[in-house]
Structures are given as structure tokens and as C-alpha cells.
């Protein structure tokens, strides 16, 4: 497999994200308008690209002087478990650190064991549950939080 490069998400990449969204999330996928809205709001979005095209993407919102939220991390099925998700997560956490975020939060489907395992390796712990958060499947979301090194 070719080397993955992490790059800034641009508006012209959105079209390439939609098939990945559909493959991974089906009826709960994000629309092009949702990605446009994230970019318009100035949130931090990155793509992972190799010689085949975009293989993953991730987004982060710095929501306060000490807080950041990971909005999504998605990796094309044929590139999962190859370090792409870790590379994207490393990039998001570095951006949160650059902004001085003392904690980073995210929501993950309760039944997404691979993602939960990845986040656990990075020190994310469960701090809440949103019942029926993902629609239309009515799947619960776990709220996970990671403290920055050196914070309370």
C-alpha cells in the first residue's frame, strides 16, 4: 500500500468523502451540506490521501479556551486497520494541543468496537451516554473524554 499523507480538507474534496460516508454510515451519513457547514464554520478538517485518492478524513472543533470536540474520523473500509485512523487522530490531537485544549471529547456509537478500542489506546474514557443519538438506527452514543497531559 502506498504512503498516506494528511492534508487540509478543501471544498472540492467533499464529493470524494460522500461515498466513504455512505459505505460506513448508510442512512446516518453526513450530507455534502454538513461538510460545507463545518468548513464554513472554520473547523479543522483533514483528509488522508494515498495514490488511490482519499482514504479517510477527520474533523475537530475547538469549542472553548480549554475544550475541543472531534466531530468525525472515518477511514475507507479497505484501508481500515492500516494506521490511517491513528494518523488522523494524532493530527487532530496535535491541533487541539496547539489551541491549548486541556480536554478533547467525542461521541462514538456504542457498537463501534474498533473505534472504541482506538480511542481507549489514546486515553479516552467514557463520561456519558446519549440514548438513541444516532438516527434512524436509534443507536446510543458514548461520550468519551481525554485529558491533555499535565491537566487536571
What features would you describe in this structure?
With 152 residues, this protein is of the alpha+beta class. It has a single domain (5-147), classed as Aminopeptidase (3-Layer(aba) Sandwich). Helix content is 30%, strand content 37%. It is built from 4 helices and 7 strands. The protein has helices spanning 14-25, 32-40, 84-98, 113-121, and strands at 5-8, 44-50, 53-62, 67-75, 103-109, 125-134, 139-147. It has a 7-stranded mixed sheet, with helices on both faces. Helix 3 (84-98) links the parallel strand 4 (67-75) and strand 5. The longest helix is centred in the middle third of the chain and has 15 residues, at 84-98. The radius of gyration is 15 Å and the shape is globular. The model has no long low-confidence stretch (mean pLDDT 93).
What is the β-strand count? 7
Beta content: 35-45%
CATH class: Alpha Beta
* SS class: alpha+beta
Q: Helical residue percent?
A: 25-40%
Instruction: Indicate the low-confidence ranges by residue numbers.
Output: none
Query: How many H/I helices?
Result: 4
Catalytic activity: N-terminal L-alanyl-[ribosomal protein bS18] + acetyl-CoA = N-terminal N(alpha)-acetyl-L-alanyl-[ribosomal protein bS18] + CoA + H(+)
Pfam families: Acetyltransf_1
Protein name: [Ribosomal protein bS18]-alanine N-acetyltransferase
Keywords: Acyltransferase, Cytoplasm, Transferase
Amino acid at each position: 500500500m502506498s504512503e498516506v499523507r494528511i492534508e487540509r480538507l478543501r471544498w472540492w474534496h467533499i464529493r470524494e468523502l460522500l461515498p466513504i460516508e455512505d459505505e460506513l454510515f448508510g442512512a446516518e451519513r453526513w450530507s455534502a451540506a454538513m461538510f460545507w457547514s463545518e468548513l464554513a464554520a472554520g473547523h479543522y478538517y483533514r483528509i488522508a490521501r494515498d495514490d488511490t485518492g482519499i482514504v479517510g478524513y477527520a474533523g475537530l472543533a475547538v469549542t472553548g479556551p480549554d475544550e475541543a470536540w472531534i466531530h468525525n474520523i472515518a477511514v475507507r473500509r479497505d484501508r481500515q486497520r492500516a494506521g490511517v485512523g491513528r494518523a488522523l487522530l494524532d493530527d487532530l490531537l496535535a491541533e487541539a494541543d496547539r489551541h491549548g485544549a486541556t480536554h478533547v471529547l467525542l461521541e462514538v456509537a456504542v457498537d463501534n468496537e474498533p473505534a472504541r478500542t482506538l480511542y481507549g489506546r489514546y486515553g479516552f474514557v467514557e463520561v456519558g451516554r446519549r440514548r438513541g443519538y444516532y438516527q434512524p438506527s436509534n443507536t446510543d452514543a458514548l461520550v468519551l473524554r481525554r485529558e491533555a497531559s499535565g491537566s487536571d
